[in-house]
């Protein structure tokens, strides 16, 4: 009996830890140090994204990327928005750019949506996130 309880607790603990893999990813903010204008566009995009105004967010994140193409967070945020709009080819392009610009940024490269769009997620991860394959 004790062994069964231990086994059940281990399974529940594992599921609880894995549920973090399917957590919703939101847009990332940046400090306005190297490119204040791009950071401002990004911040406006985050506000619109959080309000569900995808087209407005897309325009602001695109402005941030155009102002500073080396800003990984802006690419990531634009990719999230393109995903929301169903533009998965564009999302993949900007997820890839974000990962190339910031390969050590865990918020980007370990996010499920990033991994799904770039074909890096396991079958189990795809299952947890709703089976997405883009």
TrEMBL record:
InterPro entries: TPR-like_helical_dom_sf, TPR_2, TPR_rpt. SMART domains: TPR. TPR repeats lie at residues 72-105. Gene3D superfamilies: Tetratricopeptide repeat domain. Residues 1-22 form the signal peptide. SUPFAM superfamilies: TPR-like. The keyword Repeat applies. PROSITE patterns: PROKAR_LIPOPROTEIN, TPR. Keywords: Repeat, Signal, TPR repeat. This is Tetratricopeptide repeat protein. It comes from Candidatus Nitronereus thalassa.
